What does this fold into?
Amino acid sequence: MSTMIRGVAASPPRRSAIGRREIASGLIWLLLLLVPLWLPAIGGYTDLATRILIYGMAATGLNLLLGQTGGLSFGHAAYFGLGTYGTGLFLIHVVPSLPLAIIAGTLLGGIAAVLVGPMVMKRRGIYFSMITIAFGQMFYFVAVRWNGLTGGEDGLTGFSRVPLHIGSRSVALGSTGYYYLVFGLFALVMLVVWQILRSPLGHGFVAARENATRLRFLGVAVERQIWASFAISGFIVGLAGSLDSLLVNFTSPANFQWQLSGEFVVMCVLGGMRSFWGPFLGAVIFIGAQDYLSSVTQNWMSLIGLIFVLSVLFFPNGLLGFIRGRARA
Amino acid sequence: MSENNDTSGVIERRNLMKIGAAVGAAGLLASPRQVWAASGAPVKIGMLDPRTGTYAGNGGDEIRGAKMATDQINGAGGMLGRPLQLVVEDSQGLPGPAISKAQKLVSQDKVDFLIGSVSSAVSEALSQFAQQKKILYVDTGGHADDVTGTKCAWTTFRTCSTTWMLTSGDFGTLFKKFGKKWFFITPDYSFGHALERDYTAQLKQAGGMSVGNALAPLGTSDFSSYLIRARAANPDVLICLSAGDDLVNLLKQAVQFGIDKRMAVAGALQEMEVLEALPKQALLGWWTMEWYWNQPGVPHVAEFVDAYKKQFGGKVPTARVWFGFVSVHAIAMATAKAQSLDTLKVVKALEGLELPPEIALQPGKCYYRAEDHQMIANMFPGHVPPDATYPNLFEVANVVPEAQIAQSPQAAGCHMTYPS
It folds into this structure.
């Protein structure tokens, strides 16, 4: 069965592509590893790189569902938001431990996705998107209205990035230290996603996207594939949310809002939904442009919109899809 | 990945050149950094204010006030002999984006001080951020009591008034004039909650009662459901606690609903930015201003108004302009007094700092109270006259010194702790 699915899914093997790809990946990892050295020199700052990694992680997680499985979710901010609040509330009310708080946030986001999954997995297309938005907004209003716990519109303050305890030593995480913590988790997530995409499960996701009917005839429970994809992406986005709350020591209901879900989708589309690095590249462009343009002009949102429109018009497969198409030609 | 390793992984020359070009382009895109002579490196104040969103109008005025002060300081020799630079970032009036921008200002622009904010939620978030970074933050315009009350921080000062002052400035007048049954339309975040709590406390004490409180989310554009509730509750007075564009929409719709024919319309905070945006029929109500441009007989005010008009196209300065103006000047005076940019030294210099009349621009003594870092100035309660036209949109009934109405730092719940 797996060979048949692979026949549907995998792009035709390309000559010479592998060597180039490995070098490109190696370069990306090297650049990411050395960020605190070169970014300030070109006018950036380390926290910006951390934010890009976090949003790149979230976009990559969403893309497992969006690009690979073909489920357009406009509600993934819900799991991001749950990650932020899970971590913040854990630090305030349970124990001030960084690893446990990150696990708590990730679990909260992921488990919510596991629970919501069965209610969305049977729908396709626009109905799928509508239900994901509805669930996203539900979590948003809970965060806004449950003033006593979440702080309502004011957001949640009163927690901070506590030092990490390794053995008997306690390590305070500054900008650079926290960057490397996020970098490590980012690498872990990318590795997991890479492994999933190579596994029968990942090929099943692609098959569900390409031809659900045929998959069903083969006796595969398509809904369960979508559920699995939804849940895994929920865990990853939850982890990203958790890391985001620790970056700024703050979270607010804006992290639940459908605008943020839309931004995740834009990142995937901008970079390329069909490529492994596409969503990350999209995050680099989106967060970078947002950071730079919003300091230059108050009309930065129009410019971001313009970038998106142009990229959809001229790079329908995303930036990476375009570059790869050029390289193949 | 190793399955078709038939070609060696060489980068072609053309691709290498492409990579080179891309790296070069990235270098060009990066912002050109200004280079200053070492002795004249500027002192930087990072300002976070909304340029987009519900509070964009208010934020714009705070920025203009701060710019005016910056120009004056640079014209008089700068801050500690160095040029002063104001770095403005858009907070969107929301705490999340504000914190991201604050991070950028501190890590990338390396600002020495932070000022700004219209929304109380942003002020609270920035106050916590500044304390963690041990950097001075002057809250220009976020009013919630907490900022200099239960959540006060040694690094935070506030130029605008508290919600307690806003409510007690006109409570007596409203209660005597309109009656004891009040209905509230409240923005659903710290500012609104604090105003409602403060009014209700005074109302209960005076023997009145609240007949309802409708919580409207920030950025609400359709107030009809809240206005229907208000009409059904049939109070003596409708208290509108929204601000910015939200208050503009609320007042317009209240008039369309004929609310003003059935009950009095009033509130705590009113601002020139709001009144200016209202159509003639919606210009009404009893409110409190925190500063007003027309103060006959008070020295320096007329000169200030003229200078502002000249610089900014004939508009009169608003309370928000005054907040920005005072906040920057206060930092400059404190650094001059401390002869240092060190946070703790500047904080100590700001405590109890009294504004000279050409900056205070109002009668009486204006100073940052040492115990909780709250500015003590004056309140300007009054009403919108029936024939209001710009710029005469408000009639100040009396000038109330805040020293008479402010809660004591103990009552506000501030216990200041300093780093050892």
